[in-house]
Amino acid sequence: MKTSVAIIGGGPAGLLLSQLLHRSGVDSVVLERKTKDYVLGRIRAGVLERGLVGLLEQAGCADRLHAEGHVHDGTWIAQGEEMFRVDFAASVGTPVVVYGQTEVTRDLYAAREAAGGRFEFEVEDVVIEGADGDAPSVHYSVGGERRRLDCDFVAGCDGFHGVSRRTIPEDVRREYEKVYPFGWLGVLSETPPVADELIYANSPRGFALCSMRNEALSRYYIQCPLSDSPEDWSDEAFWEELRRRLPSEVAGKLVTGPSIEKSIAPLRSFVTEPMRWGRLFLCGDAAHIVPPTGAKGLNTAASDVHYLWTGLTEYYRDGSSAGIDAYSQRALARVWKAERFSWWFSSLMHRYPEQTEFDLKMQTAELDFLRDSASAQRAMAENYVGLPY
Ligand code: RFL
Ligand code: PHB
Fold first, then answer.
1. What is the largest CA-CA distance in the chain?
2. 21 and which of 26, 115, 120, 383 could share a cystine (Cβ 3.0–4.6 Å)?
3. pTM for the full model?
4. Which CATH number does the domain 5-72+95-177+268-345 belong to among 3.90.1010.10, 3.50.50.60, 3.40.309.10, 1.10.1040.10?
5. Is 289 in the pocket of ligand 2 (CB under 6 A)?
6. Is residue 72 among the annotated active site residues?
7. What confidence tens digit (pLDDT) does each residue in 14-26 have?
8. d(Cα 293, Cα 287) in Å, to the nearest integer?
9. Which of 221, 264, 300 to mutate to test the pocket of ligand 2 (most atoms within 8 A of CB)?
10. pLDDT digit string (tens) for 149-159?
């Protein structure tokens, strides 16, 4: 098989890139390790920046997002029994949209299928060859049969555990990592959300987040030790702990019900540099991970896709390599700012095992400053709604 861009990974980054390239007249093939149903079953991000919404519009995949997504003009921050609101609309004039990653992925698959996009599912033993030369190829097995895809470029959109990043030689690659000493236990339930907007809560018992997917579907998280597993938490124990971490006024309104998904995600900050090696480009979680506080994971994958899509379009349309040559530097410049914001917001909201009395005072002072200062709120809002591409 032959194509212009071989895309490894059929998650949101790979699908969005494939669809945008298609709209620019550039051919691609998406290779995915799992089945489509498996990919659509993963419950992940829920908050979309304006940049991602704009890309989905350009991809021709935003109709359902506009019909069913919820525009949020602000968010609540709880500090023990107190709550204050950061008003995105008043601070920076831009909202965010609450629409699940699962739905984004579903819309992208539908668009690729309608356009006759080429996929290979359940691919195994993927090997990228010749990325440092002029004629790369991707080799993989499907149902025990070895196949070969020749291409001009390879886009490594295969997430944190994929093969693309590891294809870059170790002496070229530099990795930066911070592992946090806790995880997030997340629950999805068919109950009405406790509030119209998200609530990020800093409590003496640890962090909690009240989020949602729609009027009838809620997503809640609590900080938990890394040694916990979802089976350790009955639904009752989860709801009880969540209530204890929220201001009592909010806790009193919480509608509980059976969980339809329950999982624990560890928190990590990670960046690999560079994001390009020859004709191989890393995109999204394959190149970087952020802790979910601030909802930057999916949105940062989207900004990578923007830089790579525009670079490849310039290459095929104008014969210019300027955009692809600048890709790694442009993407990383924005990635590091998202890393900083996610690290800052995580540090502000969680309880750390080694936290001293002084550290706790610093957290309180920082939260007080955010509550009282219009410029601090503006800085937070600017980052939360997404820095420009
Ligand atoms: P994905 O979504 O991981 O997709 C990568 C795809 O590549 C496939 N793959 C391979 N395909 C072919 N060959 C191989 N060798 C392959 N190896 C892997 C995988 O099956 C998968 O389909 O990465 P992408 O597209 O870069 O998208 C990034 C986002 O998914 C990610 O940043 C966010 O979901 C992160 N994240 C969250 N972000 C938020 O903003 N808010 C959240 O609440 C949130 N929750 C989460 C998350 C990530 C999680 N992970 C990675 C475990 C919760 C979890 C559990
Ligand atoms: C979610 O709804 O899953 C969500 C929202 C905001 C975050 C993280 C996760 O910061």
1. 63
2. 26
3. 0.97
4. 3.50.50.60
5. no
6. yes
7. 999 999 999 999 9
8. 19
9. 221
10. 999 999 999 99
